[in-house]
Amino acid sequence: MNSGHGCSSKSSSQAIICRAAVCWGAEELLRMEEIEVEPPRSSEVRVKMLCASICHTDLQRWKGLPRSRALFPIVLGHEGVGIVESMGEGVTKLKEGDLVIPTFIGECQECTNCLSGMTNICENYPVNRNGLMPDQSSRMYVRGQRLYHVFTCSTWSEYTVMNVNYVTKMDPRVPLPHASLISCGFSTGFGATWKEANIEKGSTVAVFGLGGVGLGVIGGARMRGASKIIGVDLAENKEEKGKFFGMTDFIKPGGSRKSISQEIKEMTRGMGVDYSFECTGVEPLINEALQSTVVGRGVTIAFGLGDKGTAPISLIALISGRTLKGSTFGGIKPQTDLPTIIEKCINKELQLDALVSHEVQLEDINQAFELLKQPDSLKVIIQITKSLNY
């Protein structure tokens, strides 16, 4: 058995001792622990993590939400990028040394859903919410105690094991922080503009919440040729970020006695927008997003889960001919669609440096949680390996 952080094993039959940020209970400070990461089993790869980032879903898991799925102790993190250190049996599309990112849904390209062309929710490799690998076991232990995974990832660790069906090969020309960002958040918003909404040139768009997902929507809407892109956020500093990615108008809620949907309608000659995207999960905003769209044909895409996981919906808004559609990963199929986003990063059509507001080392992970509370905070990059020259 190897020991010490930053270690590696050329044999997939050996366990590795490395460092990880472990959450032992809801809203408790994460503790750096030496954990044991088992070798990969069939159809699995063990990955040496290079860097990671924080997504809102990680914060929910840290808070113990949803309550019915609170799992501790757990290694958080599902955005990131790393290199394949070893492989289990049956892995044919990857090799040791490949750069990879995790995806929280898979794509078998064989099931009814994958073949339908109507959804990215794979029947064989769906979102895994029980904190274990597909075979219902863990690959991480601390002092003999089982650790739960986030989805099939757990990227806030120097090493982790992933099922190969939840891994996408990454082109090394993409900067590592950018690779981490497109493994979930930004891609979710960007992809939804063509996979879920199929925004037409000249369309009008409203985006509720200008975090990583919302800015992804703005960037995608701009590339799709939207004529008006209205961003909505409580933080005034998000206006500059939104405009960088292509936003044309900005609303800070509370600035007037009018509702957000009323303000949006005034900006669109009383009609409302063609498409709205709700990226926060804040309960009242679901209906505001729905009511901000044009009667008879407006479409609202909802990503956010919120703390409760439920929200009341205005039936009047729905029966007026509007459509409310939920979305996972922006409708993106990891193997089929992510290469399009990767190529846009390589061609510098997507400039993702503007998404990064802070960087921390893995051992300073708790500082990252504090940074996220700051008004200027957007995406925090976590450097897992001291040297990113892999």
Can you offer a commentary on this structure?
The chain is an alpha/beta fold and 390 residues long. The chain has 2 domains: 16-183 and 351-383, Quinone Oxidoreductase, Chain A, domain 1 (Alpha-Beta Complex); 189-328, NAD(P)-binding Rossmann-like Domain (Rossmann fold, 3-Layer(aba) Sandwich). Helix content is 22%, strand content 23%. It has 11 helices and 18 strands. It has helices spanning 56-62, 112-116, 176-181, 185-195, 212-223, 238-245, 260-267, 283-291, 315-319, 338-346, 365-371, and strands spanning 16-23, 31-37, 44-53, 74-75, 79-87, 99-102, 140-142, 145-146, 159-163, 167-169, 204-208, 228-232, 249-251, 275-278, 299-302, 323-326, 356-361, 379-383. Strands 3, 5, 6, 9, 10, 17 and 18 form a 7-stranded mixed sheet that branches. A 6-stranded parallel sheet has the order 13-12-11-14-15-16, sandwiched between helices. α5 links the parallel β11 and β12. α4 runs parallel beside α5 (212-223). It starts with 15 loop residues before the first strand and ends in a 7-residue tail after the last strand. The relative contact order is 0.14. Mean pLDDT is 93; it is low at 1-10. One of its GO terms (molecular function) is S-(hydroxymethyl)glutathione dehydrogenase [NAD(P)+] activity. Homodimer. Residues 212-343 form the Alcohol dehydrogenase-like C-terminal domain.
